[in-house]
Amino acid sequence: MQVLENDKFKVEIDELGAQLTHLYNKKENFDYIWNGKLWPKHAPVLFPAIGRSVNDEYLIDGTKYDMPQHGFAGEQIFTVKKNTGKVLVLDLIANEETKKMFPFDFKLTITFELGEQGLSYHFSVLNQESDREFSFSLGSHPAFNVPINGEGKFTDYTLKFEPSDLELKQFEIVKTPNPYRTGKVVTLSAADAGLINLNYDMFEDGLVIIENDGLKGVTLSSQNTDHQVHLSLADFRYVCLWTKEGAQAPFLCIEPFAGLPDVVDQPSELMEKEANTRLAPGQIKNFEYAITLQ
């Protein structure tokens, strides 16, 4: 387990999956990140797929490859390249196991930087192939305790999106019983003037994926606490909201997505998959987001 720490916060990150497991407020002695039995994870990294692929597989030039839900990064041990106590750099390089699912040479580097306002993520994907392009999805899946510090209840909290004048839209979801997209984009009915008042009914389909070009950030807050969580989203076209359906769970995942789950019953060709990032040989693609805390 890797630790970052300053006067305000203490962060713990597992080399298995490069997963953020704790983000402590040291002054008031509480954790912003979920650690509970209802869902055994905390903040998985999603790569090179997001969501569940149709039949847990996808196609490369018509050849089928297995792909687990959210890809394989969460089950890989990352190499620690640097830990200064404020900055942690972790690498995942293609190996024999990953090539069974994703037959390309790649390097995924994740840099965590702890500052006075919170924690930032920097993702870098490098195509190390000599002559082959590939495509990928990348996402982050942090689960935040709601209520924050036990103050209020889940339904006291709101999400405020920036800019506030966007007409928020979401992908229609169907459960089979796993959630897939139908291919349709509809108005986000739970939103009003850039605000969502959290309720459990909105997660009956399992998740809410918001589609908005121009979405800059989202803030989780409540009138019952002075604490809040803000995520910057400029490098991510989509943001997913999820809590464990039917469980009245006291957590909310706010997930920056660069990529999308599959459409139901439509197997994906890797190079044609909607919302994937294409990367030429030798090319690097960077993504960043910040978790700002009060």
Give the tags:
Gal_mutarotase_sf_dom, 1 helix, Beta-galactosidase, Chain A, domain 5, 294 residues, 2% helix, ten-stranded antiparallel β-sheet, eight-stranded antiparallel β-sheet, mainly beta
Report how far apart the termini are.
25 Å
**Discrete helix count:** 1
Radius of gyration: 19 Å
What is the level-2 CATH architecture name?
Distorted Sandwich
Number of strands: 26
| CATH C-level label | Mainly Beta
Main sheet, how many strands, which sense, barrel? 10 strands, antiparallel
- Structural class estimated from helices and strands: mainly beta
**What sequence of helices (H) and strands (E) makes up the elements?**
EEEEEEEEEHEEEEEEEEEEEEEEEEE
Q: Give the % helix.
A: under 10%
CATH topology heading:
Beta-galactosidase, Chain A, domain 5
In what order do the strands lie side by side in the largest sheet?
8-9-10-11-26-22-21-15-19-18
Can you tell me the residue ranges where pLDDT is under 50 for at least 5 consecutive residues?
Answer: none
Please state the average pLDDT score: 95
Strand content: over 45%
Number of domains: 1
Q: What would the principal axes of the Cα set say about the shape?
A: globular
